[in-house]
## 1
Amino acid sequence: FYRFLSTHTGRKLQDKVALITGAASGIGKATATKFINNGARVIIADIQQKLGQDTANELGPNASFITCDVTKESDISNAVDFAISEHKQLDIMFNNAGIACKTPPSIVDLDMAVFDKVMNVNVHGLVAGIKHAARVMIPRGTGSILCTASITGVMGGMSQHTYSISKFAVIGTVKSLASELCRHGIRVNCISPFAIPTPFVMDEMSLLYPNLDAQRHLEIVHSAGVLKGANCEPDDIANAALFLVSDDAKYVSGHNLVVDGGFTSF
Ligand code: NAD
């Protein structure tokens, strides 16, 4: 019956189980919603306990929440084990949690503790996510792993070197591990968003330009260099995520899908 439903209703993730880190908010939440609307059961893994639980309640019976700090390998391992104990399988792992930081204009002034903190979430946590997803996907010989990179991992000079370095590492990780995992039937891809209005981006704007209203800055960025009238939102990234994890992309691996309204084409 469910197979009939997926074929005849266009639900692209019928019977699939997805684990999404950083899904209490923003891009992760929009993607969790999209996946559920396409027939998946989704585990929301986030460091924010109340918001994560509220999000799961809002998304209904096909969503569940687990507290997870991606910098702790045991939390990631537990989240993956939770997927197996609750749903018997893990088809999709979306390593989406990420943070930014205040970066000094000069590398000479870089606080290495801040650098380590960002790398710990954006790279170490993401690699651990891939490691534990692969642990349960390899024996099944199938799976789709997705990561959130950024256009700051495609082009340097965006005046935020620490965050940019971490996102270059995300794209490098995806390419390195896609080639390793392809022989196990596991695809590994990433998405590079730009200036999607979420709490993260508003905080980032405030860090980078403390004297400018974050919303106003976002409007300036959009009017300067992205598709006219595109009016981007987290759902634009969720659409890209759905494509990459679904069978529509069954021959796509090691790819970085830039979703930036044309910004990096200038
Ligand atoms: P967001 O702030 O709405 O969501 C980020 C989520 O990650 C939050 O729910 C937060 O609690 C969670 N998180 C942070 N640290 C964590 C940790 N240690 N363990 C588990 N969860 C943790 O922001 P968003 O814009 O949806 O960001 C999602 C991803 O998108 C990030 O990786 C970010 O770098 C990336 N990104 C966003 C944009 C954009 O324009 N919004 C652009 C490029 C990249």
## 2
Amino acid sequence: MEKEQLAVYFIAGTPNCLTTIEETLQAAIDGGIAMFQFREKGEGALTGERKKQIALRLQAKCKQAGIPFIINDDIALAIDIAADGVHIGQEDEPASVVREKIKGGIVGVSVHTMDEFEKAIADGADYVGTGPIYVTATKTDTRPVAGTTLIRKMKDKYPDFPIVGIGGITIENAEEVMKAGADGVSVITAISHAKNPKQAASQLKNVFSRTQ
Ligand code: 3NM
């Protein structure tokens, strides 16, 4: 994968969206997101065939836009529909096992310490996400708020490895995350709950461009 694909990395599931997830994703694409992760979690989350059908529709939109379509945690679904990749946490299957299953696809791993970061690299991850950088209401079982210190340390040691920040990132604070060395920002609410998701995505893209 290219680092530039992390610039504005939108994540969403149906419970995160104010309108339909298809509409929200289309607006985010029109605003210039570079990658999308389908993360169908939380109250009211779809499962089984209904989840798969939505995934296929979102995948088609990403394909048309030429951006990677990543699935959170559900490795079986990712393989079933030939998604471009998966994103896993520390509680999921080991990244080395997922790497084998996903073959040439993108594998992203959530990390919270330098040790987890180095393990993810050794296991064959293509990028890591680290957070929560700021307070987030979207995920309740996060680690303590980390700020940008770890991103700086990670970039100092591995300047070329793709890193994205996550958790409570907004148009206002995204610049701080980029300046700490992140290759991009992962957001749910900043786009999915925006009055104008297209504009929000475009503003985040502008923050990325002006910090390069
Ligand atoms: N992972 P929002 S924080 C999915 O810290 C997720 O690993 C996190 O949502 C982590 O952009 C988070 O609305 C939620 O804050 C991000």
## 3
Amino acid sequence: TGPTIVAGEILVEIMASERGLGFLEPLALTGPYPSGAPAIFIDQVAKLGGGAGIIACVGRDDFGAINLERLRRDGVDVSAVSVSDRYPTGSAFVRYRPDGGRDFVYNIAESAAGRITLTDAARRLADGAGHLHVMGSALSIAGLKEIVAYALKSVRARGGSTSFDPNVRKELIDGADGAHFSALVDGADLLLPSGDELLAAAGVEDEGQAVAALIARGVGEVVLKRGAAGSTRFGADGSRTDCPGFLVEEVDPTGAGDCFGATYLTCRRLGIESGKALLYANAAGALNVTRLGPMEGLAGFDALDRFIAGTDRAGT
Ligand code: ADP
């Protein structure tokens, strides 16, 4: 018991509303939309009725207010979000290349999110949490590392659970952060990698071997995200469940992984069995990519049930 908590960057996203154009001419833009992987994740936890809290730092500005309003409205505890008078809330600008790829301009390193520190409010939230979810960004910001280390110790000491989404570049894993990365993997109740991240986390080349290596390190279950193809769950007992993706038109892929992870975790914390949790998570990820804006497609159980009933899946 106790809420699920996350720590990390809150920002806004502004995107080109015209697709496939260059950037030398002015583009029509849409946004700002609330964003930041931890914010997306925790908002989805709250939408499903799971207790939720976030440790973050925003600027005293409209971009910060947009996020805090959304999180509060959806039921996230924002008591551990500090507001900086000195640094602004970060932003990301996204445009879509003619080949369908995306280019980002980030303004985060010098923003409030990069200045986050372990405050008393953050300690209080961590000390009451039942589950800590950690994401890759926790490895690259000094203050965030300290917060995550504190929360990890506090949650584990009280018998709480942890999950880790290793959405982090290989260079970071190999560098000075290796020990920190290992501490997050070892004994995680739930690991939520994408394909190549799975191999990187385990340090081997083969999917089956990677899962076995992670389970041997005390990981409780591994849920692999496969984009439009869906997902696969590997249990500590050697079981494997494949869940084909829902057939949708992808409008904006940002946020799918976090929405998926939050849904799987929250279903499990609410006592829903793993196969059903995987189905809900696939639905949440798929529904999320049909909406423009990272947090605009987040959905509670009613909307997910309607989506599942009305949408085909690949190969079914
Ligand atoms: P990440 O962004 O972390 O790499 P994915 O892109 O794999 O995560 O997306 C997470 C989940 O969301 C997938 O496992 C799938 O269930 C769902 N999803 C993502 N993109 C699509 C898509 N285009 N069509 C259907 N489902 C999708």
